[in-house]
Design goal:
The chain has about 450 residues and is an alpha/beta fold. It has 17 helices and 13 strands. The chain binds uracil.
């Protein structure tokens, strides 16, 4: 059928067949569908939605637009996690080695920073020598030998999503639950996983600020993944403050190394990481209950096996062999450090988390245009969490910048992002809800 007829049917609120969706996605991949037609299709879906069968068909058609990896030669379950994105969210760097050290295989295909949120790929790129875009042979070797590999998406995986996503980005059609669902899941299905855990963030530093929207996205992701043959569950986790006390690329890698080696662990980050590890181990069939998963993950972290796995992964992908012993020797450091000082006595009662992410972008740690180069050294550390007591003149955070002018601009943003009040606020839950497939 002609692309314009498929668009008309969706525009008029009709249900598209599997063949119509496959035809349209085929045209997106081959170029037979123009940018204008793809944008009009996305807008029609934005307004009229898709039912479960349509969303499954869209996901599968986008998966099949490129290569689908096959890990059937691996002697263990193949699993991964996807986060909808946040600030100070370096969970993947700890989670992949914890779960791999428990016996699963984690071929983690991650993305670059998007908007105010950080990207795992940009963080791994802060490690000198680390090949974050290896060819498939090196990717496979690293996964087989170390249990995990964190890399970037290749051009051959879900190319229809790559094109449609770029068009959605400039046509006001990103925030559509079926389109987000198909976009995320087509890439995960193309990665050849057997199970997937989704970390759907909610709060003022997440794309979904309201609980109702995060729950709708989590339900859609879980339902469509399972409909497409991928075992999936989700955790809804809080993003009303940065998860780690560091935000930026090298500084989040350093925070992750400290976490793995036990030198320092942010409490909320530990809660979320272990909860996701337990969920992954259970859905991969390596433990019989969530409590068992939590116990296995906690022991593996405490034993140092997760740290050793991370070290092996870094070396297998070209990074320094002694990286976790001497991260300070390898990670780039910014020229200027600047403390953001509290202007009152009291307790941190709130953090405008998106503004913290934007401050990192402003320092050069993220992008304002797709082809911008990211500065791995800049960022913010020692971010006080909500509930922390602070006195006038004491640091709320430490800015790492290229220049004093950059540092002062970021410090002003960070200061205005913090609210300090007279009484300690009640603790916010870090893991809010678990979403399992219905039925
Ligand atoms: N991340 C994706 O991969 N796709 C979306 O549509 C939104 C976030």
């Amino acid at each position: 059928m002609l692309p314009q007829e498929i668009i008309r049917r969706k525009r008029d609120g009709l249900r598209l067949s599997e063949e119509e969706i496959a035809d349209f996605v085929g045209g997106v991949t081959s170029g037979a569908v123009s940018d204008g037609q793809a944008g009009a299709f996305a807008m029609a879906v934005f307004f009229n939605g898709m039912n479960r069968d349509e969303a499954v068909a869209l996901t599968l058609a986008m998966r099949d637009s490129g290569d689908v990896l096959d890990w059937s030669d691996l002697p263990g379950p193949v699993t991964d996690k996807h986060s909808t994105g946040g600030v100070g969210d370096n969970v993947s760097l700890m989670l992949a080695p914890i779960v791999a050290a428990c016996g699963a295989y984690v071929p983690m295909i991650s993305g670059r920073g998007l908007g105010h949120t950080g990207g795992t790929l940009d963080k791994m790129d802060a490690i000198p020598g680390y090949v974050s875009q290896p060819d498939i042979a090196l990717f496979r070797k690293a996964v087989l030998e170390t249990g995990c590999a964190i890399i970037g998406q290749t051009a051959d995986l879900a190319p229809a999503d790559r094109r449609l996503y770029a068009i959605r980005d400039v046509t006001g059609t990103v925030e559509s639950v079926p389109l987000i669902t198909a976009s995320i899941l087509s890439k995960k299905l193309a990665a050849g996983l057997q199970s997937l855990v989704l970390d759907v963030k909610v709060g003022n530093g997440a794309f979904m600020e309201k609980s109702r929207d995060a729950t709708a996205l989590a339900n859609s992701l879980v339902e469509i993944a399972n409909g497409a043959g991928l075992k999936a569950s989700a955790l809804i986790t809080g993003m009303n403050e940065p998860l780690a006390s560091a935000a930026g690329n090298a500084v989040e890698v350093r925070n992750a190394v400290d976490f793995l080696t036990g030198r320092f662990r942010d409490r909320r980050l530990e809660d979320v990481t272990l909860a996701l590890a337990a969920e992954m181990l259970q859905s991969a069939g390596l433990v019989s209950s969530n409590q068992d998963g939590m116990r296995r993950a906690t022991e593996t972290l405490a034993s140092g096996r997760a740290a050793a796995t991370f070290a092996r992964m870094v070396a297998a992908l070209g990074g320094p062999a002694d990286f976790i012993e001497k991260p300070e020797k390898y990670l780039p450091a910014a020229a200027t450090e600047f403390a953001v000082k509290a202007t009152a006595n009291g307790f941190v009662t709130g953090i405008a988390t998106r503004d913290i992410g934007l401050a990192v972008v402003g320092l050069g740690g993220g992008r304002t245009r797709p082809d911008d180069k990211v500065d791995p050294a800049v960022g913010i550390t020692r971010l006080l969490p909500v509930g922390a007591e602070v006195r006038f003149g004491e640091p709320l955070a430490l800015v790492h910048a290229r220049s004093l002018a950059d540092a002062e601009a970021a410090a002003a943003t960070v200061l205005s992002a913090y609210t300090v009040g007279a009484s300690k606020p009640p603790a916010d839950k870090s893991v809010i809800r678990r979403i399992l497939p219905r039925g």
